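Suppose a colleague, Dr. K., hands you the sequence of a protein chain of 433 amino acids and asks what its three-dimensional shape might be. Before reaching for any lab equipment, you can write down a predicted structure in token form. Begin with the sequence itself:
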Amino acid sequence: MSLSNVTVNQPNIEPGHYSVVVVGGGQAGLSVSYYLKRAGIDHAVVEKKTVTHTWRSQRWDAFCLVTPNWQCALPGHPYSGPDPHGFMKKDEIIEYLDGFIAKVDPPVLENTGVIRVKRGDDGIYAIETTGGDFTADQVVVASGGYHAPIVPRMAERLPGEVLQVQSSEYRSPEALPEGAVLVVGSGQSGAQIAEDLHLARRKVYLAVGEAPRCARFYRGRDVVDWLADMRYYDMPVEKHPLREGVRDNTNHYVTGRDGGRDIDLRKFASEGMELYGQLDELQDGQLKFSPNLIANLDDADDVYNRINSSIDAFIEKNGIDAPMGEKYEPVWSPASERTTLDLARSGIKCVIWCIGFRPDFSWIDAPVFNGRGYPAHHRGITPQPGLYFVGLPWLHTWGSGRFSGVSRDAQYIVDDIVSVRSAAGGQQESMAA
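The predicted structure, expressed as tokens, is then:
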């Protein structure tokens, strides 16, 4: 099927005043629009590109969900397909999103970037955009937290003949030049892209970071199913052992590919993938790596086994009949730490940077950000009246930035908007009396 957007109705969306302006037309912004429409609150969704464009333009060809389909629970649009425990592929995800867009029918202005948001002395927000100026009583920022790709300065010193690709730009092994590929970063994207290349029989060098991993299936069920029963996905950030520090955690690597399986970097290494520690520097044609490959692999396996042990404890406590589990034992271990790699001799013709993104909220003029540019908030409600955030990782729970939890967050924010508007209306009636 085509990966283009469905036709979006844009009824008279033009610069002017709205009760609420939602910045961002991804699943978070559309979820907010869904609840605003149900509450009868006039609003406009302003989208820099096109609605849900990230899923269409920033995912590789073989991309699929890493969480089972039953966790796709956008408001009014739960997964209803034939394979709730499967993992939708890219075209299926887009079809699911197209159905959601059609249901919401959002009042959206696409291809319109927001340049500045600032609250005036009168409490009204001024929103400057590439399509004109808006004003609003309240603003919901739903542009996500992954804006600026992280690429180290050493990238500037790579030879011009070495193609450099950021993870959001990667499409397929066939789209890369012939030769070896260096993948930098082993988080969710890095590990899956390395797997994609490895399965295509490309020579892969992988700079392994500190990302944890988890099992796909354990004791007869998907690990996600077990964790859901254990109420992990309902745990609010303030009750997580790491508190707000969990927002900085790298996602566990696992895959839903071919029905779902573990990603075991040790197995890949036994099949020919070259593993190194964290990439630190490029000097005189030599790539320099930290001597932390062994520690990073061991730490990832420790997390894997700890998650499984927590499932064991839950099964025992509740007397659940389940197949026996076993502890993961390494299938390969590096003989030593290798800290240098000659770029030319390795035959590396492409480097794929998979080391994440930085948030960029520089266009929001509001005193709510910490030193790292992250907004202070409680469940998306900031200290500045009328300014909200939704769709950020661990905004409230693990699912806040995913299909599984964004509906709950969007409803909570819209409920607060309704409450604030109701209170303001009551005050105005009291003053008039």
